[in-house]
Amino acid sequence: MKKLICCFFITAYSYCFAQDNTVKFLKAETEKFFAKESLDTSSKNWRKGGQFNFNVNQGTLSNWSAGGDKFSFSLNAFLNTYAFYKKGKHSWDNNLDLAYGIINTTSLGNRKASDRIDLTSKYGFSFTKNMSLALLSNSRTQFAKGYAYLKNSTGGDSASVTSKTFAPAYVLLSLGVDYKPVQALSIFLSPLTQRYVIVTDKRLGKFYGLDSGSRFKNEAGAFFSANFFKKLNANITVKSKLDLFSNYKNNPQNIDVFFSNVFTAKVSKFINVSVNLDIIYDDDTQNVNPEKGPAPQILQLMGIGFAYKFKG
């Protein structure tokens, strides 16, 4: 009986020891697996983020000898989001800008101050350290109706519709070379670009160089785009974009220009001072004053208000 009991304990001890070794082995292998997984950099291939600015200004005058509107109110909102991907020779840059603003005064009523939808997506395959063969697409339009305001014969304001949602919309597809000397700067050049000008309301087509009764036109040409996005220091950020397009089919020497700039200076965690400056020139876009020829379109906004930055 004693021998039987001894055999039982010896067998049980051997079994437990074997089990303990098995557990240790599995634990070691698991730790190796998770250590390997922790080195996975797939999430680091993406760089995502954005900024939202919301500025409000209000003023009131009462018995003000220097003159002016009794009441003024303005609201401007701007949102920029980006998602940049980089892995090996492949890159994919995406950027979306949304802006909308209104102003209200006693004498002028409600008027639109800014309005933009701008989406750019660019895929690149690098063949040197700083240069890539790239395919770029860009879509640019607006949210709401726009008006031209002129004085009528009685001296009052007359308003006429000059734009609507997707009237106009510019859609561009381009194949070219992308050069990135530093992370903050990207320069894209293409001799092969197709651009579509879309005006959903036929009555507005004449303002954007479309034939009577047509809703769109296509243009083949050369395209240049330079983008700069950098945090200059702990408080100041600059975002700038310059697009140039030359239409091979019609007056290639008259280059279309789209130049957009946003400067932001941090006052506190959620308060920023922002300055927006946009310059647009398109030889086919009619002047708001029909008696004058094509001219640069300039938009400048400056304000202080709520700001929020986010990262993915």
From TrEMBL:
The keyword Signal applies. Pfam families: DUF3078. InterPro entries: DUF3078. Residues 1-18 form the signal peptide. Keywords: Signal. It comes from the Bacteria. This is DUF3078 domain-containing protein. It comes from Ferruginibacter yonginensis.
